[in-house]
Design goal:
Blueprint: H1 13-43, H2 50-78, H3 84-119, H4 125-144, E1 153-155, E2 162-164, H5 171-206, H6 215-236, H7 244-254, H8 257-266, H9 270-281
Helix pairs in contact: 1-2, 1-8, 1-9, 2-3, 2-4, 2-8, 3-4, 3-5, 5-6, 6-7, 6-8
Length: 295
């Protein structure tokens, strides 16, 4: 029975139920929206372009994040982690690899948009596939390191989901965190920021803005910024000094990214949105509306 398991330290029954409910909504909504994005790409021939393949790959990564959130929600309602130590390691790895891949694909889309709008260079299939394969392998490498001792996966404060353990803040953690963050977050933020700054300057010159270039970076920092701040705080101070409830805000915000990304990169993209509409309704979209360009 649920009542036989003690509450995690620092949480009330209401806290556990509320956080579990947030994770469930994030998980199910993000999975459904990204699943529609993925299936539309596979079913609508006009959508299958190299640029849209990056959006498709982002949706796959975000589906993984949503699955991770749904498992965490189920455990939260149980008030304990039912899958044991091995399950925790698997959950941590799966969540980490999909989270890193999501960040990388957001940067890849920014890079592609820069070339579309600023250099008028279209992405080729060979480049898109090579980039996607590299991203998944690169993220799998960094996510596998805690499994073999460089870094460590352990429970979040709610103790119903697992991620990189920042509670110790020891030399092993710091030596892993710094290069991992540089190659999987800092560089990506720079790519997103510089790409959309160049696009914003291009829009000013043409006087024909196609979207708000500041939104993708703001969304990225909203979702992943709290995790980054917490991770680096743990490198210099004892993270356990931060209240458990406040520390849980980082994963809650991070798991909103699958839903936010759908609205930014699929539904917010005119040609991809048209393809999704065609998939859902069967209404044929005119060819000029589904071109290889992001809106």
């Amino acid at each position: 029975m649920v009542s036989s398991y003690p509450l995690p330290e620092g949480f009330s029954d209401f806290d556990v139920f509320s956080l579990g409910s947030c994770l469930l909504v994030e998980g199910l909504l993000g999975f459904f929206l990204n699943a529609v994005t993925v299936v539309a790409f596979l079913k609508v021939r006009e959508l299958r372009t190299p640029s849209n393949f990056l959006v498709f790959s982002l949706a796959l990564a975000d589906m993984g994040i949503s699955m991770n959130a749904t498992i965490a929600a189920f455990s939260s309602f149980l008030r304990y982690w039912p899958y044991g130590s091995d399950g925790c390691q698997t959950h941590g790895f799966q969540g980490f690899v999909t989270a890193l891949a999501s960040i990388h694909f957001v940067a890849a889309i920014a890079w592609d948009r820069y070339h579309q709008y600023c250099t008028r260079t279209k992405l080729q299939w060979s480049s898109a596939i090579t980039l996607a394969v590299f991203i998944w392998l690169f993220c799998a490498f960094w996510s596998a390191m805690p499994l073999i001792g460089w870094g460590e996966y352990d429970y979040e404060p709610l103790r119903t989901c697992c991620t990189l353990d920042y509670s110790k803040g020891d030399r092993n953690y710091v030596s892993y965190l710094i290069p991992m963050a540089i190659f999987n977050m800092v560089i990506q933020v720079f790519v997103v920021m510089s790409s959309y700054q160049s696009i914003a300057e291009k829009f000013k010159k043409t006087g024909n803005p196609r979207f708000n270039p500041s939104t993708p970076l703001k969304a990225m920092l909203l979702c992943w910024g709290p995790y980054g701040i917490l991770a680096f705080y743990a490198a210099v101070e004892n993270a356990n000094l931060v209240s458990p409830k406040l520390r849980m805000m980082a994963p809650i915000l991070a798991k909103t990214c699958p839903t936010i990304n759908v609205f930014l990169y699929a539904l917010g993209n005119e040609n991809y949105r048209g393809g999704i509409w065609q998939f859902l309704t069967g209404e044929k979209i005119e060819a000029p509306q589904i071109e290889n360009k992001s809106k």
